Hints:
Layout: E1 8-16, E2 23-33, E3 39-47, E4 54-58, E5 61-63, H1 80-94, H2 98-115, H3 124-133, H4 143-157, H5 164-191
Antiparallel strand pairs: 1-2, 2-3, 3-4, 4-5
Helix pairs in contact: 1-2, 1-5, 2-3, 2-4, 2-5, 3-4
The structure holds zinc ion.
Amino acid sequence: xNYWNFVQKIMSKNYICGHCGNDINSNEGYYITSNxxxxxxxxxxxxxxxxxxxxxxxxxxxxxxxxxGKKFDEEIFEDNLIYSLYNEAQKCMKVNAYTSVGMCxxxxxxxxxxxxxxxxxxxxxxxxxxxxxxxxxxxxxKNWVDIIxxxxxxANHEIVLLNKNDAEQLIxxxxxxxxxxxxxxxxxxxxxxxx
Length: 195
Ligand SMILES: [Zn+2]
């Protein structure tokens, strides 16, 4: 088994590992010191006991940041591009690249709409409308349609930076659409023995 050399017992910390997504408690890693023997609280590196990868904690920061959003099985997607783009959006989230999350989510929605039968070469708003009008957006989520039209457009057309909350909400919406369009039909097929 591989392990990190000279790793030390340090103050236990609970965090979501940005590499594997597990919610863990670790008390193994390294610390910054100014006297050579004790931590001065300026920084720690924790080692995840699930994936064995390190995460740096400075004052008020975690690098890589936690994985945001559900992890989907690759096998639910007929189209690998959707899986890759969704993962890319999650990676952007980990490095606080919120406007880039918006751009990925925008591409995702357009691509999902085409997968669902929309014509190619339409604009973003038309694709969101297509998903809405063809009932891929559930009734109780209709109030999301306007929000997504606005935020998705901002990410591409105007010089407006998206913030963390915008990015999280876009991922929440995409996650719901992916569950409706790919995950639920896949599970139904599997459950009824077709796959
Ligand atoms: Zn991990």
